[in-house]
Structures are given as structure tokens and as C-alpha cells.
Amino acid sequence: MSGTAQHLDTIESLCALPFPDADSPGAYESSGPRHHLVTLLLAPAESGEDTATTVFEEQFEAEREALSLLLTVQGWGPPDRFALTGAALRAGGEPLPAPWDHLVHTVPDVHLWRRAERWTGIGTAHHGPGLPLALVAFTTTEDPP
After folding, report:
1. Cα(125)–Cα(63) distance, rounded to whole angstroms?
2. pTM
3. What is the full per-residue pLDDT of the chain (145 aa) written as tens digits?
């Protein structure tokens, strides 16, 4: 099975996976009573060079576009493209629920679908304290900020 097919399976399984009763926080991997956040692709930690980072950004963007297209043709419909930049400011200092609390600080924008009472999305996390570039997927019952 190709990487894209595995990522598609992961995203689809998130939509059916029950939420745990308690939070299990992590950087690019966490679950809680109303969310799941997983890493689909992770750049090597030593890829700090600008050229390497650009290559991974392009690869992750291409994978996100491919996944979005596949989900669209499989009946999900086209994604909303939702900007998270500034979402923390829009929240007016109120704490954001998981996974949005982490995503608004690391992912500039997401491809987002509303299905079966859940928001499901894909985005590229560009920064985080000591964290490499990552393509992440998530599902949550919490509305976007």
C-alpha cells in the first residue's frame, strides 16, 4: 500500500475512532474526549537547512493536495480551506479546545471537512518548540475558532 493510501486510511479511520475519556497530550500526536490528532509525515529533525525545509514543505503540500482530491472524489466533497493564522487573536484570549489550541500556533491553514458530527482536517505544521515540519490530520467535535 502506498503512503498516500495509508494516509487516506488513517484519515478515514479517525472519523470512526471513538474518543477516549481522558486527554493524552502530545506534540503532533494526541487524543482526548473530543479530538484525535495524528502525524502523517514528519521531516527529519536534521532538515533545518532552508533548501531541505523547502523540499519537505513542497512534498507535504503535494501530499495534502492529493489526499484532499481523493477525499473529494470519494464523496467527502471539496474541503473548506480554513486559515488558522490569527485564530488565537480572534478567540480574544479565551483558551481554545484541543486540538485547535495546538494547531493555531503551528499550522497556518487546513483543508477542512464537516462529516458525521465531526470536523476533519489536514494541515502542515510549520513550527513548534523543537518540533520538525509535519503533515498532520485531525478530527474533532469542537468547532473551528
Report:
1. 14
2. 0.90
3. 679 999 999 999 999 999 999 988 766 688 999 999 999 999 987 655 566 678 888 999 999 999 999 999 999 999 999 999 888 777 777 889 999 988 998 899 999 999 989 999 999 998 665 678 899 999 999 999 9
The three grid cell numbers given for residue 41, joined into one nine-digit string: 509525515
CB atoms within 10 A of CB 42: 17
Residues ≥6 apart with Cβ < 8 Å to 110: 81, 82, 84, 103, 121, 122, 123
**Which grid coordinates belong to 137?**
490530520
Separation between Cα atoms, residue 142 and residue 135, nearest integer Å: 20
Residues 124 and 137: their CA atoms lie apart, in Å, by 9
Q: How wide is the angle at C-alpha 57 spanned by C-alphas 55 and 62, nearest 5°?
A: 95
Contact 67, 4 (CB under 8 A): yes
Quick one: how far is CA 30 from the chain centroid?
11
How far is residue 135's CA from residue 92's CA, in Å, rounded to a whole number? 28
Given a contact cutoff of 8 angstroms between Cβ atoms, the answer to whether 104 and 145 are in contact is yes
Neighbours of 114 (CB within 10 A): 15
